[in-house]
Amino acid sequence: MKNINRITSFNVDHDFIVPGMYVSRIDGDIVTYDLRTRKPNADDFMDNLTLHSVEHMLATFARNSALSDRVIYFGPMGCRTGFYLLMRDATNEEAYALVKDILQKTVDHDGEMFGAARKECGNYKELSLESAKTECKRYLEALLERENLGKADFKYDEA
After folding, report:
1. pTM to 2 decimals?
2. Domain coverage including residue 48
3. Given 17, 36, 115, 152, which residue has the most CB atoms within 10 angstroms?
């Protein structure tokens, strides 16, 4: 078997990742952001209901934002500690402002869960607006705390 290259995210020491927003990789004009909502390997993983619900809300708000034409992808991490946001031709500051905005919109949302119908989702019964709101509030507070500490620099913490 020929050598297999290690993917970028496996090269980050997960023992030092805390909730925040990080640049995971840059591929030309596309930046992959690591939206880390939970500390990895701390046995505090999102349950599938929460992960799925946040995905529905944030993906919908991102794709309906002023930066919608720059949003390539928004989706969950398999480890259930965060999400990936891929954006084209956006500055880190624009992406960060977008993330804070869509988190707040989810927290403030008083309508129905987006995509919660059988025709819209392959697991439409496993969604909860309240779970999404709780997780988004928690993550927004973590981002603001890092910002207040001067650590909203999009770089992973190191030993």
Report:
1. 0.94
2. 16-148
3. 36
